[in-house]
Amino acid sequence: MTVEEYILSHSDPEGELLATLSRDANVNLLRPRMLSGHLQGRILKMFCRMLSPKRVLEIGTYTGYATLCLAEGLAEDGRVDTIEINDEMEDFIRKYLDQSPLSEKIRLHIGDAMEIIPGLQETYDLVFIDADKRLYTNYYDLVFPLIRPGGIILADNTLWDGKVVEETIASDKQTQGILAFNEKIKNDERVEKVILPLRDGLTIIWKK
Ligand SMILES: C[S@@+](CC[C@H](N)C(=O)[O-])C[C@H]1O[C@@H](n2cnc3c(N)ncnc32)[C@H](O)[C@@H]1O
Q: What is the CATH number of domain 3-207?
């Protein structure tokens, strides 16, 4: 048994719907590794359990896996807004949202987060940034005014497969995007932050 198997066998199961979604993605989608998966999904749910948020925003839906995990931990009258730019994912996402008892708590926006966020008339308790790595600083700047003081931003993939400590290749815009984001967060005195070495790196940011 590996340590990861041990962790998963001693943590909550992901449940039948998410396991089916995950299998479906692995068989039928091109980049199934992008979805959060069992361990990170349970951690996202646990963050929500601890914060009991009324309003959550996810930037980058992909399959809806993390969306459903975030929705599991919402406050009673809570809601998740999730934004996905790739309209070809809509049928896949809706297929699973529709099977969930939490579907009424989820609002799916198809389009570019850079265009949709300015039109959201909400104050968020929790934001999960998990879309285009080249645009992380842009998402952050756009969403920051919508987050309440004491609210949390989670940013995924902030260690980017260890590339953050390797020599950067000039053409690798994704690594450059993550490096710029990490630098910006480090120097932002409006927030407290820590990088959790979970999976591909998950930064936890607390707005003062
Ligand atoms: C890593 S996946 C998201 C995984 C999902 N959050 C999860 O944890 O299961 C990133 C997604 O962001 C989407 N995306 C990229 N740029 C975007 C943008 N500007 N606005 C909205 N979605 C975007 C991609 O199409 C892709 O489906």
A: 3.40.50.150
